[in-house]
Amino acid sequence: GSSCEKCDFETDLCEALHEFNLQPGWIRRNGRSGMGPPYSDHNGNDSAYFLSLSSTMQASSATLRTNIFLPTDDEHICQITFHYWISQRSGTLIVRLQKLSEDTITNIWQDSGELPNQWKANTIMINTTEKYEVTFWGMVGTQRQDATVAIDDITFSEGC
């Protein structure tokens, strides 16, 4: 099936992302918040909400964890699509995979804003025989003013 869950952050976090999986540093806001760029979500809407991590908030890094997902199977690979924004000054977004049977966390994707100050979309595929969780890890350089990483519209396919 094509049913999937979408976290657009318009009201709060969705089922795949619970409040206690959101570390201090991430703020749910919109482009009108007066907190600097981005001034709109990925659709260009200045009143639509997204998550952002800003160097002005004193936290240099923060993670956003999913709930625990069941193992994927041949028919259902977990596909996670998300939109993200990294400021020109400094910022990195890393997606990590943690299998529950292991202590290791694997970085499966990262971007440091080669095309800064614009929303981009990315899709990652996860195929594993174990229970797992996915972490979005944002980092901003605290010594720089107004460094920002933002995330919007995370979609989880049925295989997640």
UniProtKB/TrEMBL annotation:
Classification via CDD domains: MAM
Sequence ranges assigned to domain MAM in this UniProt record: 5-160
InterPro entries tied to this protein: ConA-like_dom_sf, MAM_dom, MAM_domain-containing
GO cellular component, one term: membrane
Protein's name according to its UniProt entry: MALR1 protein
Annotated organism of origin: Columbina picui (Picui ground-dove)
Lineage per the UniProt record: Eukaryota, Metazoa, Chordata, Craniata, Vertebrata
